[in-house]
Amino acid sequence: MKFKIKSICCIGAGYVGGPTMSVIADRCPDIKVNVVDINLERINAWNSKNLEDLPIYEPGLKEIVSRCRGRNLYFSTDLENNIKNADMIFISVNTPTKTKGVGAGMASDLKWVEASARQVATYSSNHTIVVEKSTLPVRTAEVIKKILFSVESNSKADRKSFEVLSNPEFLAEGTAINDLEKPDRVLIGGESKEAMDALTRIYLNWVPKNKILHTNIWSSELAKLTANAFLAQRISSINSIAAICEATGAEVKEVSRAIGTDNRIGSKFLNSGPGFGGSCFKKDILNLVYLSKYFGLEEVSVFWESVVKLNNWHQHRISKLIVTSLFGTVTGKKICILGFAFKADTNDTRESSAINICKDLLDEGAILFINDPKVNSDQIAKDLGLLETDILNLDEGNWYFAENMDIGFDNADAVVILTEWDEYSKINWKEVSKKMRKPGWVFDSRSIISDKSLNGSELNLWRIGGGSKIKNY
Ligand code: UDX
Ligand code: UDX
Predict the structure, then answer these.
(1) Judging by DSSP bridges, how do beta strands 334-338 and 161-166 pair with one another?
(2) Of the residues 220, 265, 276, which should be mutated to test ligand 2's pocket, given the most ligand atoms within 8 Å of the CB?
């Protein structure tokens, strides 16, 4: 008998849960999709009248929310009723790296996943398919199952029963809607064919059948960690080559282009930058490191840990070379930071390289004017662990939120590009140069400035991996 899904509940209205459920609601008008979260403020933001106030910025998201909200897409804090009425429940809560106890600094903290599983166990009724959407360490499904199956056997009177599936999300922030609407693949791991088919039928509403892969549950969990580890590894690889380019006079962009034409390597994900950020890469690699150590695979753990170590080294390398270029000291010097998000087209700053680079510069006594088109000053203060200072009281080691980047340029010794926002690639450097103190520097960690755009300015340029084109006055 086909198990027809009429009502979905998603626990966690975050970067993954919110957009994913919006697209499911959009593509499956017959299914009622309820997104629940313990955070009332976040839910209120999802329900805000003004679609500019949604808690997450993703191109295309507000259009979908405006089409579906109140039709078959709902956001609320009512976990109990929405769990009770759901045929399928997605767990999409956050799984940060543990900060204390066993596995601290490496293993994921599963307390929210466990709490969600317990809520499902308590409130659900009838047969429920539980889908792991959060990225989880391998064999987490077992934990969820144990919690759910314990109530299954205890409360036969309620006829509660469960199936657990793994359905990791591969969306990248900034392109979430496109990634969800046209995924490279959808991965469904599980043991019950009936449950896997039920989830497959949902995706078949818009995803071609040959893109929906079925695996066992552990392979699915491990595939997600592996995909992120491979992607992050490519970035550490190209960033290590960028350092060699700078030392030898080669151009990392040219090297990327040359190797990217090899079909086996492929051209994507070869842009050298200030180091990878985002909520997933570091956390997932550290999970892999922990897993390898746990199973006694020391060499494997050292291999993957080196990807994260290279990334940390690379971030500090950038702050150091800024200091070195400015005559070995930035104390009391004004530096304009362009971009705080971990990449363009998102307001997310989790693990952003900008955090480490700005902290280093502040420690060195710089005065930072920080601009980002989507990140607000409260978030920056939280990330830096330092409140913004009033513009009239700015002193060494302080920062100010430059809502308009122009005030950041006035009398600055350097401009540092850390996020590849489109508007930063269109800056008129000739005009900016007039405002800056000389010798002035532009540090382009994203390689978005063209050679031509500096013509006629009096600025020195450092570009990531740009060994041959350092322009020095
Ligand atoms: C996702 C994945 O779920 C995570 O595993 C992956 O590694 C990163 O991406 P994300 O959606 O980015 O997490 O997290 P976040 O934006 O923090 O959203 C999680 C939401 O879950 C939060 O709004 C939080 O309030 C909510 N939550 C957490 C609950 O509703 N219940 C809980 O018990 C815990
Ligand atoms: C990543 C994965 O791509 C996605 O599949 C998974 O579901 C979640 O983690 P995300 O973190 O949103 O997505 O962003 P991604 O585009 O992968 O970028 C991660 C980091 O790598 C960013 O800091 C980005 O600037 C950096 N990056 C990416 C580079 O430095 N160079 C590149 O060529 C690509």
Answers:
(1) unpaired
(2) 276
Element (H, E) at 320: helix 298-325
Instruction: Please state the atom number of ligand 2 nearest to the C-alpha of residue 419.
Output: 25
Contact 119, 147 (CB under 8 A): no
**CA 311/CA 309 separation, integer angstroms:** 5
pLDDT at 433: 96
Going by alpha carbons, the residue nearest to atom 30 of ligand 2 is: 273
Domain extent listing, the chain: 7-215, 310-472
Residue 357's pLDDT is what?
98
In this predicted structure, what is the pLDDT of residue 1?
A: 58
Q: Which CATH class is domain 7-215?
A: alpha beta
pLDDT tens digit string along 433-446? Answer: 999 999 999 999 99
What pLDDT, on the 0 to 100 scale, is given for residue 469?
A: 58
Backbone angles phi, psi at 144, to 5 degrees: -60, -45
| Secondary structure letter of residue 279 according to DSSP | S
User: What ligand has the least distance to the C-alpha of 183?
Assistant: 2
Long-range contacts of residues 146-150, Cβ cutoff 8 Å, at least 24 apart: 147/114, 147/117, 147/118, 147/121, 148/117, 148/120, 148/121, 150/121
For residues 391 and 397, the answer to whether their CB atoms sit within 8 Å is: no
Q: Domain 310-472 falls in which CATH fold?
A: Rossmann fold (3.40.50)
Q: 174 vs 19, 59, 61, 184, CA distance in Å? A: 11, 7, 10, 16
> According to the model, what pLDDT value does residue 473 have?
38
Place of tokens 């359905």: 167
Q: What is the pTM of this model?
A: 0.92
d(CA 25, CA 300): 41
280 C-alpha vs ligand 2 centroid, how far in Å? 9
Identify the three-state secondary structure at position 163: strand
Distance (Å, whole) CA 197 – CA 214:
9
- pLDDT surpassing 50 at residue 341: yes
119 pLDDT more than 70 = yes
CA distance 391 to 395: 9
- Half-sphere exposure of residue 118: CA atoms within 13 angstroms, side-chain side: 6
Starting at the edge strand that comes first in sequence, how are the strands of the sheet with 32-36 ordered? 73-76, 32-36, 7-11, 88-91, 127-132, 161-166, 186-189, 212-215
What average pLDDT does range 103-128 have in this prediction? 90
- Side by side, the strands of the sheet bearing 367-371 are 399-401, 367-371, 334-338, 414-417, 440-444, 459-463
Phi, psi of 33 (to 5 degrees): -115, 115
The CA distance from 280 to 128, in Å, is: 28
Is 184's pLDDT higher than 50? Answer: yes
